[in-house]
Amino acid sequence: MSPDKADEQAAAAPPLPAEALAYLEHARVQKRLAERTLALYTQDLQRLCAHARQLGLAPLALGSAHLRRFAAQMHAGGRSARGIALILSGWRGFYTWAARQGLISHNPAQDVRAPKAPRPLPKALPVDDAVRLAEHRQPQADPWTEARDAAMVELLYGCGLRVGELVGLDAVASSQAHRQGRGWVDLEGAEAQVFGKGGRRRSVPMGPPAVQALQAWLVLRAEPFAGERAQRLDAHALFVGERGARITAQTVWLRLRQRSQTAGLSTPVHPHMLRHSFASHLLQSSQDLRAVQELLGHASITTTQAYTRLDFQHLAQVYDQAHPRAKRREPGK
C-alpha cells in the first residue's frame, strides 16, 4: 500500500478506539504537547489502526512482526526512511503508555526500526569553482577585511579545516593554547597545528598560497587596534572581527557566502563545502584514502570513504563524456 493510499484510508477511517483516544488525552494533558504534535500523533495512530483493520486485529493485539511488515510496506510504497522513523516513534510512544497502563505485557514497537536512510553525498565544488573562489580578490574592499577573508578561504580549502578548527586557531603557539585546547599556525614550518574533534591534534601542511595569505593578513591584523584600542584585540586569536574579539563561526559562514557570490559562483558556499572540496579534489588526484583520512582528522576511515562515492561520481561523468562505448547511439547513426 502506498503512503498516500494509507493516509487516505486513515483519514476516512472510523473513530479511533478508546485506548488510542485515552493516550492522546494523556499526551495533551500530562505531556502538554503542542497542537501540531498532537495532530501528528493522531495521524500516526490512524495509520496504525488502518493497518490493523486489514488484518482483522485490534491495535493492541499487534506484534513486532506486524509492525515490521507495516514499516516495510510503507518503505516499498515510497515513504522516506525519516518519515517511517517518525511514524514508528509515534507508535512506540502509544505502546509504551499502554504497557504502563497494564493493557499489554510488552511494547511490540520497542525493537522495530525504520530502514536506514542513505547517507547524502558530501557537497563539493567543481575544481574550477574552488580555485576561482580561492584566487578571488576584491580590489575595492577594505584591505583589512579582504586580507582576513582571503586567508580564511585558503585555510578552509587548502587545509580542509572545519570551521570550528579555523576560528579556534591562534596566531602563534603558546602554553595557554595547549592548556585550553586551541590550535595555531606555524608559518616557518608551513603547518597548521589543529585541535579537532575528540580532543585529537593533527598537523596539516599549508601550501604556499595559504602561507602567503596568512603573512599578508598578519601584517594588517593588529593595525586597527593601535594606541588606546590595543586592549580590545585578542592577542592570541589568529582571526578577529572588527571589534578585536576572536571571530565566530557564524561570521565565517556569512563572509564566505558573500565572497562566493561576488566571485560569481552559482552555488552559495559554506565552510564545510570547502572541506568537502579539499577532500574530494585531493582524493581524485592521489587516490590515497588513508592520507586524506589523516588530513581531515577522521577517527574512522569509514567516514572518509564517503568521498570515494563522490570520486566515483566524478569518474562516471568522465567515462560518460569521453568513452566511445558510454554513449548509446541512436538507430541508423
From TrEMBL:
Localization annotation: Cytoplasm
GO molecular function: DNA binding; tyrosine-based site-specific recombinase activity
A Pfam entry, by short name: Phage_integrase
Keyword Nucleus: no
Gene Ontology process terms (BP): cell division; chromosome segregation; DNA transposition
GO cellular component terms, semicolon-separated: cytoplasm
The Core-binding (CB) domain, residue ranges: 14-99
InterPro entries, per database record: CB (IPR044068), DNA_brk_join_enz (IPR011010), Integrase-like_cat_sf (IPR013762), Integrase_catalytic (IPR002104), Integrase_recombinase_N (IPR010998), Integrase_SAM-like_N (IPR004107), Tyrosine_recombinase_XerC/XerD (IPR023009), Tyrosine_recombinase_XerCD (IPR050090)
Keyword line: Cell cycle, Cell division, Chromosome partition, Cytoplasm, DNA integration, DNA recombination, DNA-binding
Catalytic residue positions: 162, 197, 272, 275, 298, 307
Stored SUPFAM superfamilies: DNA breaking-rejoining enzymes
Domain of life: Bacteria
Record's subunit section: Forms a cyclic heterotetrameric complex composed of two molecules of XerC and two molecules of XerD.
Role: Site-specific tyrosine recombinase, which acts by catalyzing the cutting and rejoining of the recombining DNA molecules. The XerC-XerD complex is essential to convert dimers of the bacterial chromosome into monomers to permit their segregation at cell division. It also contributes to the segregational stability of plasmids.
Similarity-based family: Belongs to the 'phage' integrase family. XerC subfamily.
Protein name per UniProt: Tyrosine recombinase XerC
Source organism phylogeny: Bacteria, Pseudomonadati, Pseudomonadota, Betaproteobacteria, Burkholderiales
